[in-house]
Specification:
alpha/beta, seven-stranded mixed sheet, about 40% helix, about 15% strand, globular
Length: about 270
């Protein structure tokens, strides 16, 4: 797709590159056009980058959620709320009903956060690389944090703002330029794959301004991004981030993908 100058790639990450101009275009266009927004989760450019979880992976997320906690109706209601916007592709899951596998991944991340860190209701949360805002929407729907900050490029921020506004969520939301992260001190920083896909220079800025000042963190590491712009390796990050650990990504979405996490009392 031809680049829209308004949504031009900055080439600071894999998804913010000329190779993924479709993704930037659909994010920006959906935030401005309600007709496009009504079906944005089916758009090729967005589905390729964000809404790409398979049916089998969705089944795996359900199994992992059941391994950690007992399913309750709040989870079902939160999934239906997230899936009520953007017309995502949904599949029938036993005892849950029709649901997007991508939304199940968001729920699994939420369960991981609760298992690792306990209640997150009063946390100041920062998310690096926010997709369309689905992870934030799921978290805020289930356990309203004190604030939630989005860090990404402008077209993505615009779409995520439209998304959470459409859901009618009530918390303190903030949106900041992900190409130039400012100094923050969050209680929890989250990144589903995005941090690992940034250029090394931008990763360094995030480490200094967002990740190291954060009390807790949960980063799903995309191993396929290794070598992109000579980004930091997992070994380097474990040395740099105090008290950080690695655990398996379950279900595993790609060979060698892992989760890096840290926090008090772990």
């Amino acid at each position: 797709m031809k680049a829209n100058k308004q949504f031009a790639a900055g080439n600071t990450s894999i998804s913010d590159s000329d190779n993924f101009q479709d993704f930037l275009n659909i994010c920006g266009s959906a935030s401005q056009d309600l007709k496009i927004f009504s079906n944005f989760r089916r758009g090729y450019g967005l589905a390729e980058v964000v809404d790409n979880v398979t049916l089998e992976q969705g089944k795996g997320y359900i199994l992992e959620i059941h391994r950690q906690v007992e399913w309750n109706e709040d989870y079902t209601n939160a999934l239906r709320k997230i899936d009520s916007v953007g017309s995502p592709r949904k599949y029938l899951f036993p005892q849950i009903g029709f649901c997007s596998p991508t939304s199940l991944r968001y729920l699994k991340v939420f369960i991981d956060l609760k298992t690792l860190f306990g209640p997150i209701k009063n946390f100041k949360i920062v998310e690096i690389g926010v997709g369309f805002g689905g992870q934030a929407g799921l978290i805020v729907s289930l356990e309203n944090p004190s604030s939630y900050c989005f860090l990404d490029v402008e077209p993505v921020l615009a779409l995520s703002k439209t998304f959470v506004e459409k859901l009618g969520l009530e918390t303190e939301f903030n949106w900041h330029d992900g190409r130039n992260p400012e100094r923050m001190k969050p209680d929890l920083v989250i990144s589903n794959y995005a941090f690992s896909e940034l250029s090394r220079d931008l990763q360094k800025q995030y480490l200094e301004n967002v990740i190291l000042p954060s009390k807790r963190g949960y980063i799903t590491w995309n191993s396929s991004a290794v070598g992109h712009e000579k980004c930091y390796s997992i070994d380097e990050l474990i040395r740099i981030i105090p008290n950080s650990r690695i655990k398996a990504e379950v279900p595993n979405t790609a060979a060698s993908n892992v989760i890096i996490y840290w926090g008090p009392n772990l």
